[in-house]
Amino acid sequence: MTGTDAGVEVELDDATLVSRARDGDIRSYEQLVLRYQGAMFRLSAKMLADRAEAEDVVQDVFLTAWRRLGQLQDESAFAAWLYRTTTNRCLNVLRKRQPAAEVDPDTTASPRRDLHPEHATQVHGQLEALTAALQRLTPEQRACWLLREVHGRSYEEIGEIVGANVTAVRGRIARARLQLAEEMKPWR
Fold first, then answer.
1. pLDDT at position 118 over 90
2. Which of 29, 30, 31 shows the shortest CA–CA distance to 19?
3. How far apart are CA 131 and CA 128, in angstroms?
4. How far is CA 91 from CA 59, 69, 140, in A?
5. pLDDT per residue as tens digits for the range 13-27
6. Is the Cβ–Cβ distance between 69 and 22 less than 8 Å?
7. Percentage of residues in the chain with pLDDT exceeding 70?
8. How far does the chain reach from its first CA to its final CA, in angstroms?
9. Helix, strand or coil, per DSSP, at residue 150
């Protein structure tokens, strides 16, 4: 949602949109959804390696967020709240799975193969290998690595999201990096 100030469009910050949404402004909440649904879907898709499950998680997260918006203590913490909720939902889905799920390489957009077919094929192979390697990490390592490396969250934010101290987060990320580096050696 944007406001106008002498004809200039101004993008509203999360705190303002959350405050307005709490007051029943559905358009403000729609703007929050538009702002964060892509990031939450990418996180879910990489954690779960299943587009349908990722879509379900994201839909559930945003419905829950709408219902519990009044419980959010700090309006400016909306993004961290979404990351925490999404990560926890993904971890719950992973815990409910009995055997390891098949890796779905289509959880990310495929590179354009019409520009340089041999390069695109190599990149696609690397993405498939990375997706498979991510699935072999523990769910906690995967969550921490994705939040840091893909979503650029700080160690402190990740700790709040996954409910661990910064030392544990650093350890999970370090172990994930070592394992991923080892598994991705053939692609170097």
1. no
2. 29
3. 5
4. 16, 22, 8
5. 999 999 999 998 999
6. yes
7. 78
8. 44
9. helix
| Burial degree of 73 (CB within 10 A; 0-12, 13-18, 19+) | exposed
Hey, how many other C-beta atoms are within 10 angstroms of the C-beta on 36?
20
Higher pLDDT, 104 or 122: 122
Query: Using CA atoms, how far apart are residues 30 and 75, in angstroms rounded to an integer?
Result: 16
Residue 94: both structure tokens together: 């992973």
* Burial of residue 141 (number of CB atoms within 10 Å: 0-12, 13-18, 19+): buried
Task: Provide φ and ψ at 98, rounded to 5°.
Answer: -85, -75
**Between vectors from CA 129 to CA 106 and to CA 181, what angle results, nearest 5°?**
140
Cβ–Cβ < 8 Å for 28, 1: yes
Please answer whether residues 45 and 54 qualify as being in contact, where contact means their C-beta atoms are separated by less than 8 angstroms.
yes
As a whole number of angstroms, the distance between CA 36 and CA 135 comes to: 24
The letter for the amino acid at 89 is R
The pLDDT score that the predictor gives to residue 61 is 94
pTM exceeds 0.85, yes or no:
no
Query: Buried b / exposed e across 164-186, counting CB within 10 Å, b at 16+?
Result: beeebbbebbebbeebbeebeee
Cα separation, 154 vs 29, in Å, equals: 25
